[in-house]
Amino acid sequence: MLDFVQQLVSGIALGCVYGLIALGFVLVYKATEVVNFAQGDLMMLGGFFAFTFIGMLGLNYWLGFAGAVICMALFGMLAERVVVRPILGYPQFSIIMATIGLGYFLRSIAGMIWGTDDLKIETPFSQGVLRIGSLVLAYDKLSVIAATIILCGLLYLFFNRTTLGTAMRASSENMLAAYYMGIPVKRVVSIVWAISAAVATAAGVLLAPITFIHSNVGLVLGLKAFPAAVLGGFGSIPGAVVGGVLIGVIESMAGFYLPQGWKDVAPYIVLLVVLLLKPEGLFGVHTRKKV
Amino acid sequence: MRFLFKTDYEDDIRLVPHSGYVISYGVLLAVLAIAPFVLSSYIVSQLVFVCIYATVGVGLMILTGFTGQASLGHAAFLAIGAYTAGFLQQYNVPFPVYFLAAGLLTGAIGAMVGFPALRLQGIYLVIATISFAFIVEEILARWESVTHGNEGMRVKTIQLLGTAVPRDSPGFYFLCLGFLILTILGTLNLLRSPTGRAFVAIRDSETAARSMGVNVSLYKVKSFAISAAITGFAGVLFAHKLSFISPEMFTLQLSIEFIIVILIGGTFSLHGAVLGAIFLVMIDPFLTYLKDDVPGMIAGVAATFGAGKEAVAHIKDNAAAVASANGLKGAIYGLIIVLFVLFEPLGLYGRWLKIKLFFQLFPLYKRATFKRQKIYVKSERNR
């Protein structure tokens, strides 16, 4: 039973990271119907930025965290401006390929700049555990869970209660109609990318004490965030996080109770099953085109 | 400019529209036929890889280019073909038999992947095919009694009609080339048949195809099966060329390389698959060249512009460091994909068509002829 709870908590912590990356996908997808395959790599880059600020320049953890988030938000806008905006409105396949290419590029460049070793950031939560009875919970995992809950709450309020959030939802429904209504769609999209990159950075920095930072971390985790996003229903913010947590728990349980090898494929098997049985996901809205 | 006067449908679908084709392709074939006897063995070996990649490219083109179903899981089909060959070879099954068996098995598995894919569109299909490829990769690593797991598997030389065909012999080159030509001819024939027209109709508009009476599900599954089977055949040749296969060869990276092949070549014509394959295979020699020669060249240029001896050495070292950096290949791949999607969406073959049309219509060529239509309203979500 104790093992089960331990596995559950570490699964939830891992799942929160998947959820945060999936959240980035979902934000961009909601706004522009672009699926950003480079999301995991934005996370990786955010981690490296934080490492540069904290580990190399010796800044305070929170200051470095904020610096990384700001840098990555600007980088997200830049990526949108240079790579995505010129091909917005073209077939989805082109955009998917462009973001895959961007991911490749970022991964290699990061490997060239920061090397291929595992890097580590000293955080206030790296050490120490919370003991409840005989249950031992590490602070670094709890910090990921707490940050995810806070970020989700903020984003949910942002999308549903602010004018900018409404403008984003409007341009995701129909870009042309949003233009006619006077919404500055280009600026809106660029802000969405900034937010999505910032969320990815938060995930990357929080994850740093658990998996370390290396140039391939984005690929591995980014691809596992897809099952999360699909399970939650692409396009639903609470769905992304719930999906992420479910995938994290499934992966961690599969690693503990099933034979070796299941851990890595379990998320994808879940993904295929979900796509077969309920392609709209848990929270998605099923739409059909009328001719 | 040549004007083709077509009087009936037969004229329109002829494989050889005019005599110019016979001459140009005849010359190409002749050049390819004498190639292994004139060129160095390294280049011939690269040509074999071009043939294999182009074969996979043709297979992927049927699915992605002509039926409009994106797949990032073709490395898995290649792996299934390669492993079938490796497995059956242990039991002394003759080459033609396991070659066919590999293709048929891969085709059957492709059809099985096609059925669930019927309900999926766009990104969902991409994600599903990636997942399929991951699962296959994991099975290859774990099913040790058949695949020898991560240790990999040796693949022996081909025995054809009692003679051995070593992997670097001209015979092997002709085998790959012959199969590529067969595949291309077969695909061209397929594309002018009702099946091929149904594929293209599904790509252009699924709804329209359905209302014209095309059985969309059936043709999508057919497209998956044919595409997978061609990739499976190519997998056998791939396994023999490398003479050793292991699960880590068939990763997402390879699937992306196949997509690069058709993306760079141009996703609307079979020429694209071959051009893309040539381009992709040439990246490696280009990188070697970059490592060996370019730093010296840069230093030479710096010296002629009056840089001091120390500065020249410094520049040379830096250039060499950049050229031999680990991730350079990945960065170049990424850059190529992004640049092609942004600036040359029709690929190399599209560029060739543009140049050709420019001279044919001179001076009336308009850039807008090849301009893509932007669509802001249509939501691919509720197709």
Topology:
The complex is a heterodimer of chains A (291) and B (383).
Chain A: H1 2-32, H2 39-56, H3 61-84, H4 92-114, E1 129-132, E2 135-138, H5 139-161, H6 163-173, H7 175-180, H8 185-211, H9 217-232, H10 237-257, H11 262-277
Antiparallel strand pairs in A: 1-2
Helix pairs in contact in A: 1-5, 1-6, 1-8, 1-9, 1-10, 2-3, 2-4, 2-8, 2-9, 3-8, 5-6, 5-8, 6-8, 9-10, 9-11, 10-11
Chain B: H1 9-12, H2 19-38, H3 41-66, H4 74-89, H5 95-117, H6 122-142, H7 144-147, E1 153-154, E2 158-160, E3 163-165, H8 170-191, H9 194-204, H10 206-211, H11 216-242, E4 244-245, H12 252-265, H13 270-292, H14 294-304, H15 309-323, H16 328-343, H17 347-361
Antiparallel strand pairs in B: 1-4, 2-3
Q: Please state the oligomeric state of the protein chains shown.
A: heterodimer
What composes the largest sheet of chain B? 2 strands, antiparallel
Coarse structural class of chain B: mainly alpha
Q: Which stretches of chain B of 5+ consecutive residues score pLDDT under 50? A: none
The best one-word shape of chain A is globular
Order of helices and strands of chain B: HHHHHHHEEEHHHHEHHHHHH
β-strand percent of chain A reads under 5%
Please describe the structure with a list of short key phrases separated by commas or semicolons.
heterodimer; A: 291 residues; mainly alpha; two-stranded antiparallel sheet; 11 helices; 2 strands; B: 383 residues; two-stranded antiparallel ribbon; 4 strands; 72% helix; globular
Quick structural gist:
In chain A, 74% of the residues lie in helices and 3% in strands. Chain A is mostly helical and 291 residues long.
Written description of the protein model:
Chain A is an all-alpha fold and 291 residues long. Chain A is 74% helix and 3% strand. Chain A is built from eleven helices and two strands. In chain A, a hairpin with a 2-residue loop joins β1 and β2. The longest helix of chain A has 31 residues, at 2-32. Chain A is globular and about 60 Å long. The model of chain A has no long low-confidence stretch (mean pLDDT 82).
